[in-house]
Amino acid sequence: MSQFLIIPLVTAAVFASWTVSVWGADEAVLKPRVPSDQLREARTWTNPLPATEDTIEKGKKLFQGKAFCVTCHGRDGKGLGSDIEPGTLKGPLPRDFTDKDWQAARTDGELLWILKHGSNGTAMAPFIPLILTEEEAWQVLLYVRSFGQNRDKPEVEGQP
Ligand code: HEC
Question: How far is the CA of 69 from the centre of ligand 1 (A)?
């Protein structure tokens, strides 16, 4: 299926889930998002890719490009992107990826699980395999992890 078809479909599904969701602001950020019966297995998955400038840069391109993570997670990884008006997103808000407590609370495997299955009842949809291959997902996750390390430093150089 072409990306041009998938993106509107996913976007429509996401907007539908926003309107029916009744969650307030997300207070339990550190609570695992993976269902408890699958958590143990998800935690055994590890990122096969090394965190190099090259792999992180690839992840960044996906995050800001075809995987459109940036629309909700923002260029700074802190949550709402500038494309979304504050208050329009119902349900738990996107994660602040620069939050070191959140970064420490999650294993890579749990994050990959979310990219495969989405986070139930939230605007976070599944991305594998429709939009990202598993390898691309691991690249994106290296970029997500880089937000936890570069809080006081500028973004990976060379980008606006
Ligand atoms: C339509 C908005 C939207 C898009 C697009 C989106 N996310 Fe999310 N994301 C969210 C929301 C909302 C949450 C919070 C879900 C929750 O609290 O369980 C979230 C949560 C997450 C989490 C954290 C889950 C946890 O364990 O705390 C990760 C990792 C994540 N997103 C990665 C991504 C990546 C990578 C992309 C692009 C491939 C992406 N998201 C695209 C809205 C979005």
Answer: 7
* pLDDT tens-digit series, residues 8-33: 666 665 555 544 343 433 447 899 99
154 is a domain residue: no
Question: Dihedral angle at the C-alpha atoms of 105, 111, 114, 115, nearest 10 degrees?
Answer: 160
Name the percent of the chain lying above pLDDT 70. 71
Q: Does 159 reside within a domain?
A: no
Closest-CA residue, ligand 1 atom 2, reads: 72
d(CA 102, CA 17): 24
Instruction: Report, as an integer, the average pLDDT of 85-104.
Output: 82
Closest residue by Cα to atom 7, ligand 1, is 124
* Bond into 129 cis (ω within 30): yes
What is the Cα–Cα distance from 103 to 54, expressed in whole angstroms?
Answer: 21
pTM of the predicted protein model: 0.80
Number of domains composing the chain: 1
